[in-house]
Specification:
By secondary structure, the chain is mainly α. It contains 6 helices and no strands. The protein has a domain of 85 residues: Cytochrome Bc1 Complex, Chain D, domain 2, CATH 1.10.760. Helices cover 62% and strands 0% of the residues. It is elongated.
């Protein structure tokens, strides 16, 4: 018995049925792409809104820590090598547990919210 690694052949016994199958494949691919890109966009939007609500007061809209609160707390800019060299796990831990004068957000933000904020911070680092 021979097994094939190829997808089964769809028999289109009429041009109408062939168009139906072609549309179905195109729709499936398009919806898959929309779903995957939409979840990334949602995470960025969610991270941005959480950042605005919880982090921006000290770290600033640009992540430079140049706000009055950021200056008084000596917030380190996100483009500083000391922050750039940290792994996501280290940034997540600092966010959950607090660091220096930064408060802990464990129990205040979900793990998903924290990961979304870290992803958003990476976008600020690229600017």
């Amino acid at each position: 018995m021979r097994t094939s690694l190829h997808a089964p052949k769809i028999v289109a016994d009429s041009p109408r049925r062939a168009r139906y199958y072609a549309r179905k494949v195109v729709m499936t691919v398009a919806l898959s792409m929309l779903f995957l890109s939409g979840s990334t966009l949602f995470a960025q939007a969610s991270g941005a809104s959480t950042y605005t609500a919880k982090c921006q007061m000290c770290h600033g809209a640009d992540g430079m820590g140049s706000t009055p609160a950021g200056k008084s707390m000596k917030a380190i800019p996100f483009n500083d090598p000391q922050i750039l060299n940290k792994s996501d796990a280290e940034l997540i831990a600092a966010t959950k547990n607090g660091k220096g004068k930064m408060p802990a957000y464990a129990g205040k933000l979900s793990d998903g919210d924290i990961k979304s904020v870290i992803a958003y911070i990476h976008t600020l680092q690229k600017k």
